[in-house]
Amino acid sequence: MDVTVIGGGIAGLALAHQLAPDHDVTVLEASPGPRGGGYMIDFFGPGFVAAERMGIIDELRARGHVYEGVRYGTPDGAESGRIDVRPLAAALGGRYFSILRPEVELGLLAVLPRSVDLRYGARAVAVRDIGLQGGGSPRGALVELADGTSIASDLVVACDGVRSPVRERVAPGHGEIVPMGYRVASYLYPDPELAGELGERMLMTDTVGRVGWAYAAGDGRVGAMFAERTDVASTERPVPDRERLQRDFAGLHPQVDRTLENAPESFYDDLAAQAIAPRWSRGRVALAGDAAHAPSLLAGQGTSLAIAGAEALARSLRAAGPHVEVGLVEYERRWRPTAERVQRAGRRSASFFAPATRLQLRLQQIARRAVMLPGAGLFAARSVLGH
Ligand SMILES: Cc1cc2nc3c(=O)[nH]c(=O)nc-3n(C[C@H](O)[C@H](O)[C@H](O)COP(=O)(O)OP(=O)(O)OC[C@H]3O[C@@H](n4cnc5c(N)ncnc54)[C@H](O)[C@@H]3O)c2cc1C
């Protein structure tokens, strides 16, 4: 059948990879090329297992890295604690690495079958049902593009991210994101000297209300990330403002201050948010990845879920053959429990992602010591995985 995928990010490319052997797949991506905006993600969990099944894990692993761990730092530059990643990675059977989000996208592009019609600069603006069958269910869907053209297909899958407008159409009343109470900014910039100083450990500030990260991101680049608590009532996307960022996050740690001095004019800046939809398909329009079940970066598994969810959808469609609706129901039945479990874990971690008070900070410091006790690695890994 003809399948149109809206969004050529992680979920969209993973889905296209899996559907291409059986279907004619078109991917519409609004950006003019692969999106460069980068932050480091931890890759483990269901997406890792799915990537193994898809035969793409070596491609992704070759682009990733296993850090020694995290180093905590206070505003005076002192080290206040450490967490080693290797015991966690070992507890996960080695199924863990860190990778820049753009590298996941480039890795998926490198293995994308040639038959996929990937169109950059193609923004979808509307989706409509076409051809009602007996009983009123549609036979396909039409995607209208910003350039005035449209594409009719047997199935449309929206992989257009957490702010997907298609979600409202599939699950009315659930189009809005669900903010988790944090605003997050991140960017990459070249700084070989600081990258050398940061070495094999990510730096995270041990601070109240606002937290900064700095890490060596390969090729002499440094990655910076900033999180602050915000009001959960607002869902509007914030406008990146370099001066505001530099002002509000100054003084967390000398090395983080250096990354602020080098903040670019444009950078990633958004609310950490989930997408909650009680249904993931309606007629011949389905949702996948963050559009369906964004867990927010607090769960640290959005990319993993995006890949695993796309693979689960492709598998269910393959098993259902011509019975597309059956495949869509099966996708949800099999995949929703895992996606919701990770979302719950994300919500649980919201209260301690950036400590709100000195007391919370102190409790976290004590908990960190417990993680470093022998034998605690597996426990910590389990709690990361939400088991
Ligand atoms: C700072 C930060 C840190 C994170 N850390 C982690 C982590 O440690 N581990 C982890 O697993 N995940 C992490 N995540 C989450 C992860 O990045 C996302 O969950 C994941 O990228 C979701 O993939 P997706 O393909 O569903 O959506 P996206 O990656 O958002 O892709 C959606 C795509 O759709 C395109 N698009 C949107 N609208 C349209 C349209 N109308 N027409 C055509 N194309 C359109 C966009 O341009 C984009 O390319 C983090 C996220 C952030 C912001």
Overview of the structural elements:
This is 2-polyprenyl-6-methoxyphenol hydroxylase. One of its GO terms (molecular function) is FAD binding. InterPro entries: FAD-bd (IPR002938), FAD/NAD-bd_sf (IPR036188), FAD_aromatic-hydroxylase (IPR051704). With 387 residues, this protein is an alpha/beta fold. The protein has a domain of 186 residues: FAD/NAD(P)-binding domain. The strands form four sheets. It has a seven-stranded mixed sheet, with helices on both faces. A hairpin with a 5-residue loop joins β8 and β9. α1 runs parallel beside α5 and α11 runs antiparallel to α12. The longest helix has 26 residues. The two termini are 38 Å apart. The C terminus is likely disordered. The chain binds flavin-adenine dinucleotide (FAD). Flavin-adenine dinucleotide binds next to α1, β2, β3, β12 and α11.
How would the blueprint of this fold be written?
Layout: E1 2-6, H1 10-19, E2 24-29, E3 40-43, H2 46-54, H3 57-62, E4 69-73, E5 79-84, H4 86-91, E6 97-100, H5 101-110, E7 117-120, E8 124-132, E9 138-145, E10 150-153, E11 155-158, H6 166-170, E12 178-190, H7 192-198, E13 201-205, E14 210-216, E15 221-229, H8 242-248, H9 254-261, E16 268-274, E17 281-282, E18 285-287, H10 290-293, H11 302-320, H12 324-349, H13 358-371, H14 376-385
Helix pairs in contact: 1-5, 1-11, 2-11, 11-12
This protein binds flavin-adenine dinucleotide.
How many β-strand runs? 18
| CATH homologous superfamily descriptor of one domain | FAD/NAD(P)-binding domain
Write down the overall geometry: globular
| Number of helices, counting only DSSP H or I runs of 4 residues or more | 14
What class would the helix/strand composition place it in? alpha/beta
Main beta-sheet annotation: 7 strands, mixed
Protein name: 2-polyprenyl-6-methoxyphenol hydroxylase
Organism: Brachybacterium paraconglomeratum
InterPro entries: FAD-bd (IPR002938), FAD/NAD-bd_sf (IPR036188), FAD_aromatic-hydroxylase (IPR051704)
Pfam families: FAD_binding_3 (PF01494)
